[in-house]
Amino acid sequence: MKAMRDVWGDTLVELGQANPKLVVLDADLANSTKADKFAKAHPERFLQMGIAEQNFVGAAVGLASVGFIPWLSTFTVFLTHRAADPIRMLVGQTHANVKLGASYAGLLTGLTGKTHQDVEDLAIMRAMPGMTVLAPVDEPECRAAMHWATEYHGPVYLRLARDVCPEVFDGGYQFTLGKTYPLKEGKDVLLVSTGPQSARCKEAAGLLEGQGVSAGVLHVPTIKPVNVQQLVEACAAYPLVIAVEEHNVLGGLGGLVAEVLSEHAPRKVLRFGMEDRWGESAPNEFLLDLFELSAGRLSQRVKKVVEAAR
Amino acid sequence: MSKNEDYSELEALARRGRWLAISTVAQSGAGHVGGPFSAMDLLIALYFRVMKVDPQQPGWPERDRFILSKGHSSIGLYTVMALRGFLPVEELKTFDKGNSRLQGHPDLTKLPGLDASTGSLGQGLSVGLGMALGARLGGRKFHTFVMIGDGELQEGMAWEALHIAPRYKLGNLTCILDWNGLQQFGWVLAMNEVHRGDRRDPWSGIDLRGIFERLGWRCLEINGHDYSQILPALEGVKAAGDSDQPTLIIAHTVKGKGVHFTEGKHEWHSKVATKEELKVIARELGIEKEATV
Questions:
Q1: Distance of CA A86 to CAs A82, A92, B94, B143, Å?
Q2: Which chain A residue is nearest to residue B159, measuring alpha carbons?
Q3: Does some domain include residue B2?
Q4: Nearest residue in chain B measured CA to CA from A68
């Protein structure tokens, strides 16, 4: 299995071959994000914009205005935080055809710690009018989402993990904007998740199976615009709904699920994730355990909740 | 361009533009005056003499691009675009009124002919850089002009674009610095300190030209109210669009230029003229007839 950053780099190369209008703008992190693969394959369309993320967002808007399809490539945090205003004003407000490739999203950022761990990005980006927000789980979905975003005319925010993401889909996967994907059926509790956390939820559900808890898993790759009906119907079959995300529990996936259900099918929703806390630099396994997002720790937490509800 | 050329037509357009800007702001009850007035002569030159644009085809792909990065001067741009035929002069009355194409800060999704949405300072040069880069990559010949303000130059993002544009050798990109020396509130003058306006010129004592040149820009300095300097500079940069250096035109301007009591006064950054003031303004701009309507 490939790391998601390699999937990102390889897919950029592939998209660049098919589409001569595709350009990639880097903010001096191409050898981390693996956009350097595109630099090697299509050097004339790889634009090094230096360590200046606000400018590279603006430059992408200019390029898009004259017919290019710019993919921005940098770490998530430098997009959604450092360049939030240019994204908001120049990309969002004008519905510019700019694609935001947000690498190293979430907690697992290769021992870099709090500066690089963007656990607010989903809340920020989904609040931006007109923005499409995607968080793929694995290689087939990442590839499909990148193909979809390149074809689509308008701004897309793509949340990408750094490392290897266990596959939950096969090569025949089709991405449909807004669609929610059941990864496992269950009876006692539904874990709603997004990005690579969905795979950890599936693993947790497998562990719970042997402990007398039947957990379903629903993967939500489109944070915005989500298919509301599918989300509501999927949740309706379960006595308990828990949103699980590698993100602050405020405003992200948990916020989305709580908002949708309170409006369309009011009920209690639990939100698992980072509970308004900052991260730290540590190995992935340590961080996932610390925030109870690893399959093991998550299954224990879910079990407690399910048993308390019985 | 001869120094003896008659610029009376452009000067009359600029006087009318200033009148339309300040009277529109007065009837809307809000807006900016000082910046539109300092930029007016440059805008008139761009839209009436320099830029390849067609008001009947505002989205013409081969048009020259213009970005008003100092977006709060929007009414100055709208009046010039109206005089040039992009919109009816009558429509200026809708400025800031709701359901208007003429937003307080330019919105390209509303008014055809705008090349960028601006208003958050420091952003326009980056967009222009992308347009110029796109023209180069696509083998296209249009020129991109971006107007920034000296107040705006305090934004970090502007400096990101200033150091990146020369790396891409964008001779088809021109940045015009409307250096009027005043901003909304600014820094007060010390006792006995004398600057051009009633507050400190934010870049006083700093060799901006030297900085720009060392970053790789070709620099020209002009009086931004003198067409005998404005036109040769702007026409010259267009002619040099194939060169390997972007150009920065430092236009020395006066905030509130054109009316004696608005010149050099920071409060006229966004002041609304009274009826009595409008009468004086109309007289000074030679627009008495229109003012009485």
A1: 9, 9, 28, 23
A2: A55
A3: no
A4: B134
